[in-house]
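Hello,

Our lab assistant flagged a job as stuck in the queue for most of the afternoon. It eventually completed. Since we weren't sure the result was trustworthy after the delay, we are filing this so someone can double-check. Below is the sequence as submitted and the structure that was eventually returned. Let us know if re-running is recommended.
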Amino acid sequence: MTAQDKIDTVFLKETVADVVVKACSECAVAQPDDPVGYVAGWLEQFVKNDAILKKRAAEKTAEAEEKAAEIEVRPSAPRDIVPFAFVLARVVPDRVEAETGVGFFTAREDPGRCPIRQSPVALGRLVDRTPEAPRRSYASDREPRTLSPNLQHQAQKEADAKVLNEATRVAKALEHIASLDGDPDILYKHAANYALKLATNGGAGMRAYVADLEEAEEDETLDKDNSEEGEEEDKKESAEDDAEGEADAAEGPAPISYENLFFRYVACAAPKGDDQDWIVGKKLERPNGISFALVDAVDDEPQAPWIDVANVMTYEGKELPDQEESDEPEPKRREKACFLGGVPRAGAYFAAPITLATGEVAGMLCLDTLRTSTGGTGRPIAPEDKALARRVAFAAARAMDAAAAKRAEILAAAEEEQAEIEARIEAAKAPEGGDEGGDKPDGDADAADATPEEPDPELAPEPKDGEDEGDAERRVALVTAKNQLGPAEALVARNQKIFETVRDLIDLVDDAALAEMRSLPRAPKATWRVIKAGLYATGHKRFEFETWALTRKQIGPNYNNELKALDPMDTERNEKAWDGVDRCLKGVTDSAVLKESKVGALLFRWFNAFKELSDAAVNVKKIKEEIDRCEEAIEKAAEAKAEAEADAAAAAAAGETGDTPEADE
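-- returned structure --
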């Protein structure tokens, strides 16, 4: 390597090496589709952020120098020193009267002096004391001009009114937030808006977000749901959940685990022109980001009461554990902020948890000043704004606590109602004569006392006289279908009776009652599956309710009307949609749903009866179609056999008369 090469290497190390290494490291972590573009964008943003930081440092230095200069040029002057303004003008009185303390000036045309007309001036305006005059005090030369008592009172009154008005606005806003115990989406939007609009300077250069904690969406389209084994597993899990619930009721609530939860941004507020709606719906998943410190208690360290970072671009937190074991030593990875936009930016970040009365963290309220092309100051967040964010998060938690208390009261009253509904259903299952054995699917009240019937000879698989194997199979299929039709129709009548018993339950699932489910910030597993079954049945697509936040938007006033419009006897069903219905309802029990929601329990009772009647009607239709198919096949086989016999008879007759193809030739 030449000396010039060494000089160039040193230059690069001292100037751009560290920045390029950081850019490459970020690119390796992100692994974008366009690595070169990513590194270029990162470096471009770094230059912008670095310019902002340097500009801020220069501003601070200039402010400090101005304050130092102001202190230097404004010393407390002794009383016998001529005031500074007159020294600059070089104005000195020509004659001073000792008795009156008055100085007389004579106009001079001296370039070094100011031309002043001859007039008497009070000596106190120039000097505080002369040897001939007694010591006098002129406070007005050293103190600022004061307002009159009336003006002082008015100014103080206006200042107090401004402070009181601001405090009143904040108090009313917090009271309003605490009263929003309905749909969490409405609560989240108001919380973000208040945190921004009530901040200093109206939230200029700042943004506010709300993110809730959610579980991974349950995919009801898994293959195991198609098998009986999967259904048994669902029932077993449901039974285990019931047992755990009883144990929790006896021993108290179990510790909350956040390992499988993630943050989803659900609301955003930003100044006009700074469009940040793109972040709504975005996920923050482990191990990215620094916000999980709000819910994670590591070793002896408790959960963070809040997160406060002055500059997220340069922030490096605690060391992260190694993900893979390796013999080669690797540099320790540290906790860093996650930029959902993909490009690191300078600015402050603050997050306050929304902690419920049970100690559970339901989400977080965040503030940031990240510098972007559309807004953001990149400066630290004011302490007053941080305190406001904590108060707003606390008020939001109280609103969610109030909603939980209402749901608990409703559930306590729902157990007796569900017992009455269960009694009505059992009464509907009983036969007309009151025999307890009549609740069998075939609806035959005398099935228990009937003597075993002789095997039906029509079901014998062996061909009869004049039948071949195909004829025997068609005969057996037809007889089997006809034998199934009677019990199937009886099952329809039985399920129709049960459905009529619970038909009026859907009227109780109105918009006011659905608000109970919309108030749940996190998806209730069993109830969510029942709601999704209804959405599948009414023609909705899975992408419309793949998350609980999206599902809440679907269970409005129209949800009840769409369910009422369904006809259980309509056999023209969308098989793909009803396959989703079957997958959602497999393994769900009424006890599991009742633990989560009263409305969910009512909906489950109604929809379960609806589905059983609809399935029975579809089964009758399939049996009738099978009978028609078998009869048609038998008829076609008979026609084919008759034609074959006719052809054979014609051939035999032709042979006897000698009219054969060979003879014709």
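-- support follow-up --
The delay was a queue issue, not a problem with the job. The result is valid. The chain has four domains: 3-73, 83-125, 164-216+260-316+342-410, 430-448+455-641. The mean pLDDT is 76.
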